[in-house]
């Protein structure tokens, strides 16, 4: 069962050689990490992204399952 969302930078066109993979509990948090990563690792300014880019990136965020400890 999916309990998290992930984004693998290498899935993005032109980023095939980037090993970064971001995982967080919510899509909102993954977006924050994507922007931070794009800025830090690729020197991009997320404020410059148009709707098309954001829509494209959104398709790359996928539900995933991360094993976490059961609360005891
Ligand atoms: Zn990257």
TrEMBL record:
Protein name as it appears in the record: DUF1059 domain-containing protein
Native source species: Parasedimentitalea marina
């Amino acid at each position: 069962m999916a309990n998290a969302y992930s984004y693998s930078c290498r899935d993005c066109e032109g980023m095939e050689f980037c090993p970064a993979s971001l995982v967080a509990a919510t899509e909102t948090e993954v977006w924050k990490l994507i922007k931070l990563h794009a800025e830090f690792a690729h020197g991009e300014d997320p404020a410059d992204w148009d709707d098309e880019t954001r829509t494209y990136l959104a398709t790359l965020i996928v539900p995933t399952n991360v094993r976490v400890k059961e609360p005891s």
